[in-house]
TrEMBL record:
Organism, as annotated: Kribbella karoonensis
Top-level taxonomy: Bacteria, Bacillati, Actinomycetota, Actinomycetes, Propionibacteriales
PROSITE patterns (alphabetical): SAM_OMT_I
InterPro entries associated with the record: SAM-dependent_MTases_sf (IPR029063), SAM_O-MeTrfase (IPR002935)
Descriptive protein name: O-methyltransferase
Superkingdom of the organism of origin: Bacteria
Length: 197
């Protein structure tokens, strides 16, 4: 990440923290990913040379900037979906400022629809950061649309462990995947679809 983008992501991080501090209703918050988790995911994108990435939950595009910068380094592209059109518009403006707008297709779409409309094995990596109670219902499509050897990252598995307990039980019981928990930020669960399954 170059200096200009580092300055922008630092600025956005501070903005998100300040913004959220004044919002008692969690749905009004931006709920940006923690910087150490963003750096970890961007590193994974580079290490795995991911070229097709799906983000579920754009908010104002903080994590999107990190991921898009890494995907661009691989010569790839990403799609990021968000239900709230105002948030998606903010993300578009932030991507413009970062010079990353052409790397990302922003969709105002339900995560469930983005998954059901994806082809089998379409995505090398998926970042899941939306509404946790729905994750369990996404599981069949998440595995189907990940390419063999592809990686799914899920945020907030430590900060909201109770809300993802049923999802985590599904993952652990599924022989088609392997998992590891990275205790950075709010806790990022890393799940790899086995290369042969
Ligand atoms: C935790 S925030 C995402 C934060 C973002 N990844 C970042 O780091 O800046 C969750 C976002 O998901 C959106 N969202 C919630 N349910 C969704 C759904 N079913 N489909 C798409 N987006 C959804 C919310 O509007 C919210 O902006």
């Amino acid at each position: 990440m170059d200096e200009k983008l580092t300055a922008l992501t630092d600025q956005l991080h501070r903005y998100g923290v300040d913004h959220d501090a004044g919002k008692p209703d969690r749905l009004d918050r931006l709920r940006n990913l923690e910087p150490d988790s963003a750096a970890l995911l961007a590193l994974i994108v580079r290490a795995t040379r991911t070229q097709h990435l799906l983000e579920l939950g754009t908010s104002n595009g903080y994590s999107t900037l990190w991921l898009a910068d890494a995907v661009r380094a691989n010569g790839g592209r990403m799609v990021s979906v968000e239900l709230d059109p105002d948030r998606s518009a903010e993300a578009a403006a932030n991507l413009d400022r970062a010079g990353l707008r052409s790397v990302v297709e922003l969709r105002i779409q339900d995560a469930a629809d983005a998954l059901s409309e994806s082809a089998d094995g379409e995505w090398g990596m998926i970042f899941l950061d939306a509404e946790r109670p729905a994750y369990r219902s996404y599981w069949p499509d998440l595995v189907r649309v990940l390419e063999p050897g592809g990686l799914l990252a899920v945020d907030n598995v430590l900060s909201h462990a109770d809300q993802v307990a049923d999802f985590r039980a599904l993952v652990t019981a599924d022989a088609r995947v392997s998992e590891a928990l990275a205790p950075t930020g709010a806790g990022v669960l890393l799940i790899v679809r086995d290369p042969v399954c």
